[in-house]
Design brief:
Strand order of the largest sheet of chain A: 6-7-8-3-9-10
Number of helices of chain A: 13
CATH class of the largest domain in chain A: Alpha Beta
Oligomer: heterodimer
Strand content of chain B: 15-25%
CATH class of the largest domain in chain B: Alpha Beta
CATH topology of the largest domain in chain B: Rossmann fold
Structural class of chain B: alpha/beta
Distance between the termini of chain A: 47 Å
Strand order of the largest sheet of chain B: 6-7-8-3-9-10
Distance between the termini of chain B: 44 Å
Largest sheet of chain B: 6 strands, mixed
Radius of gyration of chain B: 21 Å
Order of helices and strands of chain A: HEEEHEEHEHHHEHEHEEHHHHH
Number of domains of chain B: 2
Radius of gyration of chain A: 22 Å
Helix content of chain A: 25-40%
Number of helices of chain B: 12
Shape of chain B: globular
CATH superfamily of the largest domain in chain A: P-loop containing nucleotide triphosphate hydrolases
CATH architecture of the largest domain in chain B: 3-Layer(aba) Sandwich
CATH architecture of the largest domain in chain A: 3-Layer(aba) Sandwich
């Protein structure tokens, strides 16, 4: 432990130029910035595994970012660095322009600012009522009872928990409802950044839509920066502004979702499950149809198909067709 | 599999007018199943779709006697001709039934009992009193079927989710069941694990001839079945081939289910008057149908030039 801390203080001086980092608009300070971040499990033993390999990444403020990659690609390790639950072996994690480990004793405060909802958080409920469970975080922040009450009600509304459920035991609720209670518990702390690890795992399609749209509304209305870790490209395409793709402990792509989905064949190359619509675009393009490569929603695909079938332009040049249409994706 | 050959096969599971509710004193005494009728024939691959709380898991648990309190159940469930809900069913028959209808659950961490993979696979057949020599053979065969032979000596808790589920599946096929029920067995897996388990399910059905009942809410998994049954609020609302079921997009949407994206896009094209032929359930078949229509159109338009 001691050794690792020492490493970190040394590497603060790591000024090696960053070869690539996803850009942020001029003048914007990213909500989170990671520079030269490295992390190994069981370092120094025969079981050593490199979990994060020179990560350089910006997470933009007020946006919803999807973090995607295979199991074992390092994404869960990465999110545990965001709120100081884990400490990088080297490199820096900046929150709102400041190194989160500047005052290691104050790391507890960072955890109020970056809320982390773990996988299957419904197993972590413990209070006697839904109200008390959601209020646990705010209570720890030593807020007044009125303030706690207000935050609890607000958070419950975001995740769609009705008032009649508030005094029930969380253990009497369905799996989907329990999940909502756990998410509301973090939202009630009003963090600057909300990180959710697979918030919709195991839910049916309706449950997925409702959880994801609740999270998106929360982000839009509060201006909170939201990071969602997921396996589902289809969900990410629908609900995120930015997408970060990880593979083999590195950041493979990062940026607006258009810029990521246009590289669909690369995504497939690393074995990720691209949205079925995107897969369909690839197959149609292989079959000779001229369709934008980066389509990822059914609506965009419907428009593209209409164009491909409807325009007399194709009549003139059966193998030509128009140049790539403008970025509909 | 074509319909004619399926219909000639013997009926394995016959669910006749089954209703089920939790006890009236429970917090939610609504009926979980109401008047469900469903027939599964030997060798079929049936997917059961439905939102959470639609009753699909309850139905599976009734078939396999995981729920064995029938106080609030009505109707008949015939498995291999025997009514599992009748009062005079013997302990012997129950064991026999569980051996012929195996079940794989959702959480890969809750199903493994031993500290070594092959011991876990042997647990079931050993309890059936299978002699050592045959036991060895069955375990080896089962591990090979699920592609886990090289992990025979591994510790289950170190495996990935998909691998754990495959070990759980091996543990059941080592008991030589005629039917396997997968109760959302892919819901907690990552895409890679899902692919492994779905491929294993298909292999069991197509190569080993095991009847498969797969409860899922993944449309792309349902699309690969011979037949899809959709449950909503305890009732069967659709029952047919994937193409038939996906033709009822509105009914599915009302039941909280979406069409696969590729099917939705292709069907939209159809509503716009483009003729698409063949199945529209997989992304490959959708692409094929769209490309065929597109080439056809180009040829015509080229000719009119």
């Amino acid at each position: 432990m001691k050794k690792r801390r020492k490493n970190v203080t040394e590497t603060v001086a790591d000024t090696t130029p960053v070869t690539y980092m996803n850009p942020v608009p001029e003048g914007e300070i990213p909500m989170l910035r990671l520079t030269h971040v490295n992390y190994r499990y069981s370092a120094g033993t025969p079981f050593e595994v490199k979990a994060l390999d020179d990560i350089n990444l910006n997470i933009r403020r007020g946006r919803i970012t999807g973090l995607i990659g295979h199991t074992g690609c390092g994404k869960s390790t990465l999110v545990q660095l965001f709120n100081g639950l884990n400490r990088a072996e080297s490199g820096t994690v900046e929150l709102d322009g400041e190194d989160i480990w500047k005052e290691p004793k104050e790391i507890g405060k960072i955890r109020f600012r970056v809320g982390l909802v773990m996988q299957y958080p419904e197993y972590q409920l413990f209070e006697e009522t839904v109200r008390a469970d959601i209020g646990f975080g705010p209570k720890n922040m030593k807020l007044s009872p009125e303030e706690i009450e207000e935050r609890v009600n607000e958070a419950a509304a975001f995740v769609g928990l009705t008032p009649d459920l508030m005094d029930r035991s969380p253990f009497d609720l369905s799996g989907g409802q329990k999940r909502r209670v756990a998410i509301a518990g973090i939202m009630a702390m009003r963090p600057q950044v909300l990180v959710l690890d697979e918030p919709a795992a195991g839910l049916d399609p309706q449950g997925r839509h409702s959880i994801f749209s609740g999270i998106r509304d929360y982000g839009r209305r509060t201006g909170c920066t939201v990071i969602i870790v997921s396996h589902s490209m289809e969900d990410m395409a629908q609900y995120c502004d930015d997408v970060v793709v990880m593979a083999h402990s590195k950041v493979l792509m990062a940026g607006g979702r258009d810029s990521v989905f246009i590289r669909a064949d690369e995504l497939e190359g690393v074995g990720l499950d691209i949205p079925l619509v995107t897969k369909l675009t690839i197959l149609l393009r292989e079959g000779g149809m001229k369709i934008d490569p980066g389509l990822y929603t059914v609506d965009a695909m419907e428009d593209a198909l209409c164009e491909a079938f409807g325009l007399p332009l194709y009549c003139d040049s059966p193998d030509g067709g128009p140049e790539k249409g403008g970025g509909r994706a | 599999m074509d319909d004619a050959s399926t219909l000639e096969r013997p009926v394995l599971i016959d669910v006749k007018d089954v209703s089920y509710a939790y006890p009236p004193e429970s917090s939610d005494p609504r009926p979980v199943l109401s008047h469900v009728n469903m027939t599964v024939r030997e060798g079929e691959y049936v997917a059961i779709l439905g939102h959470n709380g639609s009753g699909k898991s309850t139905l599976a648990k009734l078939i396999n006697l995981v729920i064995d309190d029938y106080t609030y159940a009505e109707g008949q469930i015939l498995v291999n001709g025997r009514d599992v809900m009748s009062d005079d069913i013997t302990e012997e028959e129950i064991l026999d039934l569980r051996r012929s209808v195996g079940m794989v659950f959702q959480n890969p961490d809750n199903q493994l009992v031993a500290t070594i993979v092959e011991e876990d696979v042997a647990f079931g057949p050993e309890n059936l009193g299978i002699p050592q020599k045959e036991l060895r053979q069955r375990v080896d065969d089962a591990l090979e079927t699920v592609g886990m032979t090289e992990y025979a000596q591994h510790e289950p808790h170190r495996l990935s989710g998909g691998q754990k589920q495959r070990v759980a599946i091996a543990g059941i096929i080592a008991m030589k069941p005629r039917c396997m029920i997968f109760d959302e067995s892919t819901a907690m897996l990552d895409p890679m694990g899902r692919k492994e388990v779905v491929a294993t399910m298909e292999k069991l059905n197509r190569e080993e001839g095991i009847t498969v009942l797969s409860i899922t809410h993944y449309m792309d998994e349902a699309a690969r079945a011979d037949r899809v049954v959709v449950l909503s609020d305890g009732k069967i609302i659709l029952d047919g081939t994937p193409d038939y079921v996906f033709d009822h997009a509105e009914t599915m949407r009302a039941a909280g289910l979406d069409l696969p994206q590729c099917t939705a896009a292709a069907k939209y094209l159809k509503t716009r008057g483009v003729k698409l032929e063949g199945s529209l359930t997989s992304v490959e078949s959708c692409a094929e149908a769209i490309l065929k229509a597109w080439r056809e159109r180009q040829r015509k338009e080229g000719a009119c030039d």
